[in-house]
Structure formats: C-alpha cells, structure tokens
Amino acid sequence: MIYVVFVEPESPGNIGFLARTMKNFGLTNLVLINPCELKNESYYQAMHARDVVSNCEIYETLEEFLEKANISTAVATTGNAGGSYNISKIAVTPETLSDSINYGGNICLIFGREGNGLSNQEIALCDVIVSIPTHEEYQIMNVTHAAAIIFYELFKKEKSYPVDTLEPASAQEKKSLTAIMDEIIVKLGYPEHKTKNAQLVFDRIIQRAFITGREAHTLKGTLRRINLRTKEK
C-alpha cells in the first residue's frame, strides 16, 4: 500500500490539488500531518478526488504516523538534494526510486511544507530521499507538480496501454516506401545531387519516425498513385 503524506500543509487548496493529482495515478491514501483547516476550497480543488480528501487520515506528528502505519519504506522528498551538508542520505531521482523500491510492504511518500519543505529531523526518519533534477535558476517546485512527477514514475511501471493495433511498420515496409518515393523524386527532374539529397532526406524521415504497419500501407497506396500520375521528365 502506498500512502501520500503531506506535512503541515499551509493551503487548503493545495490539499485538494494533491488529492486530485493522486487520483490521476490511482492513489487514494492521503495522510495529513498537523494540517491547516480543511475548507470548501480543499474539496473544490480536488474536483473528482473529493473522496480522497474526505477519507484522509490526520496525525499530529510524522513520527506518530510512521509508528502506527507500520511503514516498511518511508520516502522523503526534497528540492535541495545537493549541497546541504545536513542531509545524511544521498538523494535519488524519481526514476531510480521507481526501479529500486520494494512494493511488498507499506510505502509512504512524504511531501513537506509549501514554504520550507521537510526539516532535517523529519528527513532523518526516512529510509530514502528522492529529488527531482531542476534548473539551477529555480530549483524548488510546487508540491503538487513534484508529486505528479514522482507518481508518474511509480505508476508507469503498472500501467499498460493497448498496443495490439499499433504494430510498428517492418523494415521491409519502410524500405518499400522509400523505393516508391525514390522513383517519384527521379521523375521530378532534379539535378543528380539534389535527387540524391531528396531521397536521403525522405529515407531518414521514414527510418526515424514511428509508423505503424497500417499507416505504412496507407501511405504506400498514396505514393503509388502519385507515382503513376507523375510523368517522366
């Protein structure tokens, strides 16, 4: 089970935004540590995730929650991974976290205050620190934006999209496309060097693009008709 823990949220709206982000990625267990008052704004901003706000658990301290919830892995989030000599653990990226975390027990993802994040004491209670690489000019992200990135990295391991009808075009299918286009380009009467350049560019585009077999079949039919109607120069 994955818990999302928001420590001392200062804005009722951000609680709603976080709940909404959680539900986007199939997470429903919201825990608030010594939060501000839950107001209508929390439910309004949650939109279709109002149930996540309604069912949230509230604790006075992070220590109390970690003890009662039988957490196997506590993950702290921070925007100041590098350069803080007070942080005793090495921060990992969300992708690394997703690859290495053990989903067997109770996991909690802990997000800090909007103003100054988690304290060093709170971070010390955690097993792992995760940080999102950002530009040096503005390194600190909004808590819900950071949460969305972390949730996505965890969720993409579970989500599979239906790709039965999206079979990529084979090498032979791509080759037949470039062969027909080569004939068309020759018919245009370009100088030899321009003909070769045009053929090379089309070939590179086709090889680089993700084209399904169905798309290749349709494009091939179109190019054949163009080829038939193009007169030799």
Low-confidence region ranges: 83-87
Report the radius of gyration as a whole number of Å: 27 Å
Helix content: 40-55%
Assembly type of the chains comes to single chain
CATH top level class name of the largest domain: Alpha Beta
Total helices: the number is: 10
> N- to C-terminal separation?
70 Å
Q: What coarse outline follows from CA principal-axis ratios? A: elongated
The averaged pLDDT comes out at 88
Find the count of extended strands (DSSP E, 2+ residues).
Answer: 7
Q: What is the CATH T-level topology of the largest domain?
A: Alpha/beta knot
Q: Write the CATH architecture name of the largest domain.
A: 3-Layer(aba) Sandwich
Main pleated-sheet profile = 7 strands, parallel
Helix and strand sequence: EHEHHEHEEHEHEHHHH
Structural class based on helices, strands and sheet pairing: alpha/beta
Superfamily (CATH H level) name of the largest domain? SPOUT methyltransferase, trefoil knot domain
Work out the strand percent: 5-15%
The overall number of domains is 2
Strand order of the largest sheet: 3-2-1-6-4-7-5
How would you describe what is shown here?
By secondary structure, the chain is of the alpha/beta class. It has helices at residues 12-24, 40-46, 50-54, 62-68, 94-100, 120-124, 143-155, 171-187, 192-208, 213-229, and strands at residues 2-7, 29-33, 57-59, 73-77, 91-92, 107-111, 128-130. The chain has a 7-stranded parallel β-sheet with strand order 3-2-1-6-4-7-5, sandwiched between helices. Helix 1 packs parallel to helix 7 and helix 8 (171-187) packs antiparallel against helix 9 (192-208). The radius of gyration is 27 Å and the shape is elongated. The N and C termini lie far apart (70 Å).
